[in-house]
Design brief:
By secondary structure, this protein is α/β, with parallel strands linked by helices. It is built from 10 helices and 7 strands. The strands form 2 sheets. The protein has a 4-stranded parallel sheet with strand order 3-2-1-4, with helices on both faces.
Length: 266
C-alpha cells in the first residue's frame, strides 16, 4: 500500500481540493482517499452533467458521494454549443476539458479551495490525450499520476478498500464513439447510449458501440465475444440496433480497448 501512502502525501500537500468526479473507478478511488486524508470541508466533488454523460453515470456518482459523505455539486456544461467540439476534430477533448476546467476553476476560486484535481492515472499518459493541454492551462493536478498509480492498481486498491466501483466497467464520454471528423449531435449521442444500454441489459457489461455512419462496430471484452456465436443472441442485438437506425451491425474481433478510434492517428 506504499503508493496509497504516497497519494495521501500528495493530497496533504495540496491542502483543499475540488475533484472532477465522474463516478467512475478512478475518480471514486481518488475521492475516497481524499476524504480519508483531508478535513471534510477541504474536499468538494463536482460532477459535470452534459449530453455526453449518461444518466446511469450520474446516478452512480450521486450514490457514491452520498454514501461516502462528501460534499457533492452537480453542474451543467454544454459542449454541443461549441462548434469546435461538435465538428469532432482530433483535439475534440481539449474543448470539452477546457469548458469543464474553466467551470471547476471558477468554483475553486469562489469557494477558496487551493486546487482542482482530475483522476488521470499513469495509463492515460500512454494514450493520445488532447485534454491534457487544458489541464496545464488551468493548473489542474493529477495526484494519481503524481503517485505513480495505474488503472490496475486503482482496481486492486479499490477492492482492498471494499469500494463498489472496483470492478465497474470503464466509462468514457459518449463522444468517444465517433470517428474524428464525424459531427456530433444530441440525436447521435442518444442513439449510442440506447444501443449500449440494450447490450448491457443482455449481460455484456463492458461494451462500446462505435458509430461509423450507418455501421455499428461493437467492442466487447474478448471473453464476451463467444456470446455472439449464439444466433438468437445476435438476432436480438441486430434487431434492436437496426431499430435505432443502424444498417450494418458488426463485432470487432480485436475486442474492447480504450482509445480504439485513436488508432487511425498512429
Amino acid at each position: 500500500m506504499g503508493k496509497i501512502i504516497e497519494l495521501k502525501k500528495v493530497l496533504a500537500r495540496l491542502g483543499s481540493v475540488v475533484i472532477a468526479f465522474s463516478g467512475g473507478v478512478d475518480s471514486s478511488f481518488l475521492l475516497k482517499i481524499a476524504k480519508d486524508t483531508l478535513p471534510e470541508e477541504d474536499v468538494l466533488a463536482v460532477t459535470a452533467m452534459s449530453e455526453t454523460y449518461t444518466g446511469s453515470e450520474l446516478r452512480q456518482a450521486k450514490k457514491f458521494a452520498k454514501d461516502l459523505g462528501v460534499a457533492h455539486k452537480i453542474i451543467y456544461t454544454n459542449e454541443l454549443k461549441d462548434k469546435n467540439f461538435t465538428k469532432n476534430p482530433v483535439n475534440r477533448c481539449y474543448y470539452c476539458k477546457k469548458e469543464l476546467f474553466k467551470e471547476l476553476d471558477r468554483i475553486k476560486k469562489e469557494n477558496g479551495f487551493n486546487y482542482v484535481l482530475d483522476a488521470s492515472n499513469t495509463d492515460d499518459v500512454k494514450d493520445y490525450r488532447p485534454g491534457s493541454k487544458a489541464k496545464k492551462e488551468f493548473g489542474v493536478r493529477s495526484p494519481l499520476i503524481e503517485a505513480g498509480i495505474s488503472k490496475d492498481e486503482i482496481r486492486k486498491f479499490s477492492r482492498k478498500l471494499k469500494l463498489n466501483t472496483a470492478d465497474m466497467p470503464s466509462m468514457a464520454c459518449l463522444a468517444s464513439r465517433f470517428p474524428y471528423g464525424k459531427k456530433i449531435n444530441k440525436k447521435a449521442l442518444r442513439r449510442i447510449e440506447a444501443a449500449e444500454n440494450f447490450i448491457k441489459s443482455q449481460g455484456v457489461l463492458q461494451v462500446r458501440v462505435r458509430c461509423h455512419n450507418n455501421i455499428a462496430r461493437i467492442e466487447v471484452e474478448k471473453q464476451s465475444i463467444k456470446r455472439f456465436v449464439n444466433s438468437k443472441f445476435c438476432d436480438k442485438i441486430t434487431k434492436r440496433l437496426r431499430r435505432l437506425g443502424f444498417k450494418y451491425i458488426t463485432l470487432d474481433l480485436e475486442g474492447y480497448r480504450t482509445g480504439s478510434l485513436n488508432e487511425v492517428l498512429k
